[in-house]
Amino acid sequence: MSQHNADRIDVRLTQIRLEADDVASYEFRPIDTPVLPAFEAGAHIDLYLPEDRVRSYSLVNDPHERHRYVIAVQREAAGRGGSAWMHRTPRVGDRFTIGAPMNDFPLCEAARESVFICGGIGITPIVSMIRRLERTGASWQLHYAARERSRAAYADDLAQIDEAGSRITMHLESEGGRLDLRRVVERAPVDAHLYCCGPRGMVDAFIDACASRPRTQVHFERFAAANESATGGGFDVVLRRDGRRIPVAPGKTILDTLLDHGVDVQYACSAGVCGTCRTGVIDGVPDHRDDYLTDEEKAGNRAVMVCCSGSLSPTLVLDL
Fold first, then answer.
1. Hey, what's the signal peptide range on this chain (predicted)?
2. Helix or strand or coil: residue 215?
3. Where are the alpha helices (DSSP H) in the chain?
4. What is the pTM of this model?
5. 228 φ, ψ to 5°?
6. pLDDT digit string (tens) for 34-86?
């Protein structure tokens, strides 16, 4: 998901619905305008939460709709509190601020065949894509992996779309139906466009399985970076604007350390994929662990994603 969007829209929460165990959907409608900005399948919005938290969520509803946006949130026990707050606090009628839709995971509507592979909450952008392809009459198939049926969000909605049951294959671990991702890729038509969204291991396996296919036909979106966050600590960050030197302790990320010391820094995914926490580097060598910066940007060492990256030098001077 992309960098934070500064364009803000006031909306009202009009519906909360349980979609699966630990997954709830939230419907937002405009307050000051009759319609919301148009969006394309695969797009996401930023949701502004208390305590300066920003979270990015895929839009689940049909892109044809302009009267509402719908997102789904999975409760994450190990998260930074955004998902827990969403499951605990909001009530229908509450007012929220969101960012205008952005899309880093676009759908190729001209493809002869679209093959979707997803795991868990990775279904959310795929639902919007399938709804769009249903409107255009294009051919598609879905392989949906989940631990058990009760955790497979939107499975019932998708089953209504695929009434014949010929385009959706559920791979439920509880029923011994583990997904053979490489087999799915190998069986896909040579001119098919393939999409994957899900856990880190699934996306990594998907990229490996698609190595021989044209890159223009392979699409994926991560919810977490391919590398583990740098939590070794043992270095200092220096804030250029006020001169503070703050040690980063073992077990902490740079972001953890900055927040602990009251430093105002924007962040969203906390996984190195959205770009919200991008911070300028004045001096030092970052230990890049993100999936947002390009290889050239990483080599230039002029920016760092503080949510997941560390430092290869004893001191990292940040533009903060």
1. none
2. helix
3. 82-88, 123-136, 155-161, 181-187, 200-209, 254-260, 295-300
4. 0.81
5. -70, 150
6. 999 999 999 999 999 987 788 889 999 999 999 999 999 999 876 667 889 99
Query: How far apart are alpha carbons 176 and 114 in whole angstroms?
Result: 26
Please state which CATH class domain 8-99 belongs to: mainly beta
Task: Please state which CATH class domain 113-222 belongs to.
Answer: alpha beta
- What is the rounded distance in angstroms from the CA atom of residue 3 to the CA atom of residue 191? 31
DSSP one-letter string for 256-309: HHHHHTT-----SSSSSSS-TTEEEEEES-EE---SSS-HHHHHHTSEEETTT-
CA dihedral (306, 311, 314, 316) positive or negative: negative
Q: What distance in Å separates the CA atoms of residue 110 and residue 113, rounded to the nearest whole number?
A: 9
Measured CA to CA, the distance from residue 98 to residue 168 in angstroms comes to: 32
Would you state the structure tokens that stand for residue 267, as one six-digit string? 């962040």
Contacts of 18 (CB under 8 A, 6+ apart): 24
Task: For tokens 């969007």, name the residue.
Answer: 5
Multiple choice CATH, 235-318, 2.120.10.70, 3.40.630.30, 3.40.50.12780, 3.10.20.30: 3.10.20.30
